[in-house]
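Input sequence (212 aa), recorded before submission:
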Amino acid sequence: MTVSVQWEIKGTEFTNCNCGYACPCQFNALPDKGFCEAVAGYQIDQGHFGDVCLDGLRAAAIYKWPGAVHEGNGTMQLVIDERADPKQRDALATILSGQETEDMATMWWIFGTMSPNKHPPRFQPIHFEINVDAREARLEVPGMIEAEGHPILNPVTGAEHRVRIDFPESFEFAQAEIGSGTSKTSGPVALDLHDTYGQFAHIHLSHKGRLN
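Predicted structure, token format:
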């Protein structure tokens, strides 16, 4: 894909998918339930799309595929921070749908390409809190998304269980903390996930891919 606008985003993410705690996608394996569903929240600490500043904005996405992500025919719904002005809204919708990005450079390019069924972005308030090291997160879009992430607990002692994925070749993160997620979404892409894979990570991405 030819990129005409350069962009860069640095921030944090929380993702909850329907698979077990070791998401098979991270290991080039098929989803453990035969299909893939996920909800994600993003906090942009620093970012730009060309000369459009994206600092401090948030976004969320809901995804659903009938099989593995790479098999396609997915459905996606983007939610853009209502605080964004028109240029910022267009910029975020462009980035999160995989446009203005080199081929296969980011997870957003993959998800967008594998989701021919795209609902129009919604512009709503997004409440998002995340502590990556503590494996704690809360994502809320009133009337649409309720998602939480917590540490996995040892079933015998109740102690917090800490596991990380280090992924030098990832198009999403260099290292992710793994926890437990529970999410419920409504609208055109309805999900109901309970104590499944939760991912907490710092992200630094651009039109060329992951930067660190």
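Checked by second reader. The chain has one domain: 7-207.
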